[in-house]
Design the sequence.
């Protein structure tokens, strides 16, 4: 046995009973390299890591930690995989899930993938190795390798913050597209015709993509379009919203209504308006999504969409635990949202004068 070789003591799940040695042979590496790829992926050359992962996917290999958990039946852990720890609303959903799980004797193990779907697969694989009983994921965009892993592992999972229209995957959430469609209609009814959008990047993020689609669909129904130069993308942070709004205010034709895909962007946009001496809503209306305290406590208060993020967390925990206990569970749950009107929206500039004529 070479210096880099180690005895293969892995146990596996599934009829094929592939081993770490099988993975190593297929990938052309040692079993020690397979172990490092699973446990310390940053210590492995990227090309080698890709070969190992491809072999794992092909052989449907699951390491020994999950096999031990299957024999003992329960680890009493639920894995919650979120896009980011920086966005507070994911924490609120996860906190609600944790409280519900704790009341029934389960702990929650938390991981973030930072909007990288390949990383999501890797951290889920690590949870599988530790025998996590069930999983909750955010959103509907996921790598096919994740579903392959979950199917082979055979434990319950649920997607949150959206509802899978295909019905193939258990999901609990709200209609992100309908939410911003309703917000855009509100602004259209006030008389706005020049719109702008501040959004998170859409790659691997169905929430931002669907919210942008809702704006465009409502505008199209009114015979309007959203110009490309009226859209700004950025990471979810106040400074991103502020920078985006300054750019929109510097445009040759300013928008009279700015829709942000979350309250963080919207409040950042409000800060930019204050810095530029632009009045809200007299000169421009600004809206958000998620109805956070951050937006509600602004002056004027932010018009936003109240989303059921706490209810999503509770319902996700209940569904997973019911399925683990063999109880009947509703696998697709569409929860309601609510348009909350506050002082940040009003008619566009000049609307009152036009009405008097």
Sequence:
């Amino acid at each position: 046995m070479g210096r880099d070789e180690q005895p293969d003591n892995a146990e596996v799940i599934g009829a094929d009973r592939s081993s770490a040695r099988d993975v190593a042979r297929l990938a052309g590496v040692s079993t020690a390299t397979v172990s490092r790829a699973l446990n310390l992926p940053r210590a492995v050359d990227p090309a080698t890591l890709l070969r190992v992962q491809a072999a794992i996917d092909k052989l449907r290999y699951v390491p020994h930690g999950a096999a031990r958990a299957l024999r003992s039946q329960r680890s009493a852990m639920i894995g919650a995989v979120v896009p980011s720890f920086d966005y507070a609303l994911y924490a609120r959903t996860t906190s609600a899930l944790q409280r519900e799980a704790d009341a029934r004797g389960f702990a929650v193990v938390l991981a973030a993938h930072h909007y990288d779907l390949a990383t999501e697969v890797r951290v889920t694989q690590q949870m599988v190795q530790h025998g996590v009983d069930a999983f909750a994921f955010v959103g509907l965009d996921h790598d096919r390798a994740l579903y392959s892993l979950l199917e082979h592992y055979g434990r319950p999972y649920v997607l949150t913050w959206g509802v899978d229209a295909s019905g193939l995957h258990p999901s609990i959430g709200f209609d992100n597209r309908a939410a911003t469609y309703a917000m855009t209609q509100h602004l259209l009814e006030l008389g706005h015709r020049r719109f702008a959008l501040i959004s998170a990047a859409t790659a691997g993020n169905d929430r931002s993509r669907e919210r942008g689609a809702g704006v465009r669909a409502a505008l199209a129904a009114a015979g309007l379009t959203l110009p490309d130069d009226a859209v700004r993308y950025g990471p979810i942070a106040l400074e991103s919203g502020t920078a985006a709004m300054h750019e929109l205010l510097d445009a040759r034709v300013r928008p009279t209504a700015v829709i942000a895909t979350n309250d963080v962007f919207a409040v950042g946009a409000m800060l930019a308006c204050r810095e530029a001496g632009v009045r809200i809503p007299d000169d421009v209306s600004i809206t958000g999504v998620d109805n956070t305290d951050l937006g509600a406590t602004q002056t004027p208060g932010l018009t936003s969409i109240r989303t059921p993020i706490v209810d999503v967390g509770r319902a996700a925990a209940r569904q997973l635990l019911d399925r683990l206990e063999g109880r009947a569970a509703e696998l697709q749950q569409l929860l309601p949202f609510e348009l909350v009107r506050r002082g940040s929206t009003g008619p566009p500039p000049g609307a009152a004068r036009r009405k008097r004529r």
Residues 20-61 form one domain.
